[in-house]
Specification:
Order of helices and strands: EHEHEEHEEEHHEHEHEEEHEEHE
Low-confidence stretches: 1-10
CATH architecture of the largest domain: 3-Layer(aba) Sandwich
Distance between the termini: 14 Å
Number of strands: 15
Radius of gyration: 20 Å
Number of domains: 3
CATH topology of the largest domain: D-Maltodextrin-Binding Protein, domain 2
CATH class of the largest domain: Alpha Beta
Largest sheet: 6 strands, mixed
Strand content: 25-35%
Structural class: alpha/beta
Shape: elongated
Helix content: 25-40%
CATH superfamily of the largest domain: Periplasmic binding protein-like II
Mean pLDDT: 90
Length: 287
């Protein structure tokens, strides 16, 4: 559960997430914050905007799935907004196919869900002649079918969401990987909340940096961590959006940015980088 800062320092308001009640993001909110006030929003950008403007005290967004990999839009939003990561939570993802009551699997013609969920159940879905249609959220795909009373359609979502919406499960456990899970991060305004999660968990630091587009510059930046025995558990690149062929790198370090060795490594990185930004140090959700 969340370990918060002093009450006077905590911004008031709900915990924002992308999706409808019953979405996996809501599962992540409950896992981290318990029965806190929740605010479902139509998209990841809306979550970042709500936290930035004070309409939500924190936001919970997916950053990585075991099957589909990185949620690139969230990385781009982390670079765009001046928010910090204060925690993370890992949520199991079990998917089902559900439709209006009385529908049979043979009657399904269209399947709705978020693009990530469709990809996570690709083996099951591609074995049938269905039109696959993307929506902004898994639970939202079920809501779409219910609101429209759409027969011949089904949604890929969680069993909890299907039950909540009054849908009938036609197939269960359709995810490609039995141990499928999604890593969510908690984002907040700088100084608004302490690190969240289990204080005894190992720490992870997420940084963003850019280097000159020249041979050896990226290697020199990464060597700063290797020389001090700091493991990079993940390295991503995103277009800088400032010039063609220029990229920003995002890395997960298995360390606390405040530790002396890591702090010196980041200082060394600054010596070869054109930009360095610490996006947050926080307890690992799988630690």
């Amino acid at each position: 559960m969340i370990r918060q800062a002093d009450a006077a320092e905590i911004p008031r308001g709900p915990v924002a997430y992308s999706g409808e009640p019953g979405a996996f993001a809501e599962d992540a909110v409950v896992a981290a914050f318990g029965d806190a006030e929740r605010l479902g929003l139509p998209g990841f950008r809306a979550v970042f905007e709500a936290v930035s403007r004070g309409g939500a005290r924190v936001g919970v967004v997916p950053i990585e799935n075991l099957v589909q990999g990185t949620v690139r839009e969230v990385y781009d939003l982390l670079l765009e907004f001046e928010l910090v990561i204060v925690g993370e939570v890992v949520v199991p993802v079990e998917l089902c196919l559900a439709a209006l009551p009385g529908q049979r699997l043979e009657e399904v013609e269209r399947v709705y869900s978020h693009v990530q969920a469709l990809g996570q159940a690709e083996r099951f879905l591609r074995g049938r002649q269905w039109d696959l249609l993307t929506t902004y959220n898994t639970a939202g795909s079920g809501r779409l079918i219910v609101d429209a009373g759409e027969r011949g359609a089904a949604a890929v979502l969680s069993r909890r969401a299907a039950t909540r919406l009054g849908l009938e499960v036609l197939a269960d456990g359709i995810q490609d990987v039995a141990d499928n899970r999604t890593r969510f991060v908690v984002v907040a305004r700088e100084g608004a909340m302490e690190r969240t999660g289990d204080p005894g968990s190992p720490l992870r630091t997420t940084i963003a940096f850019a280097v000159r587009n020249e041979p050896g510059t990226l290697l020199a930046g990464l060597r700063a961590f290797a020389d001090r025995g700091i493991n990079l558990s993940k390295l991503e690149s995103r277009p800088s959006r400032t010039a063609a062929g220029e990229y920003v790198f995002l890395a997960d370090l298995d360390a606390d940015a405040a530790d002396p060795g890591c702090a010196v490594a980041i200082d060394d990185l600054r010596g070869v980088a054109t930009m360095v930004r610490i996006l947050g140090s926080y307890p690992r959700g799988d630690g």
